[in-house]
């Protein structure tokens, strides 16, 4: 199975012309700053080298945008750059789906642990809010008398 199979990459709802998008247009389409796009490229996180015009300007294709959308999703779930680099490196080689699966399953476990921690913290905040509401309601009753 090829990485660019639509089921494996997020949809990006942008019409990309044949010549591709400029870095500014790609940044706007993906919600990533141009500085971040340059950083991701330097760090080897993009699937392919970004094509350039004869003048050296980057041009992003639909496949690049889909890859970037997946990268954003992984970053927003807390995946470290080093782990994204591993997935990018694996994704450049056919036949590494099982290895990619291992990386994603490992990340899912970290996300689930973080989610459980966040849910515990939210429960503690809810308890504090309830306690403060109770105290505040008692103060309001005392002020009315």
From TrEMBL:
InterPro entries found in the cross-reference section: DNA-bd_dom_put_sf (IPR009061), MerR-type_HTH_dom (IPR000551), MerR_fam (IPR047057)
Which ranges of the sequence are coiled-coil? Answer: 101-135
Q: Which residues form the HTH merR-type domain?
A: 20-90
| Pfam families in the cross-refs | MerR_1
Q: Which SMART domains match?
A: HTH_MERR (SM00422)
Signal peptide interval = none
**Which GO terms fall under molecular function for this chain's record?**
DNA binding; DNA-binding transcription factor activity
- List UniProt keywords, sorted A-Z: Coiled coil, DNA-binding
Output this protein's name. DNA-binding transcriptional MerR regulator
Tell me the organism's taxonomic lineage.
Bacteria, Bacillati, Actinomycetota, Actinomycetes, Geodermatophilales
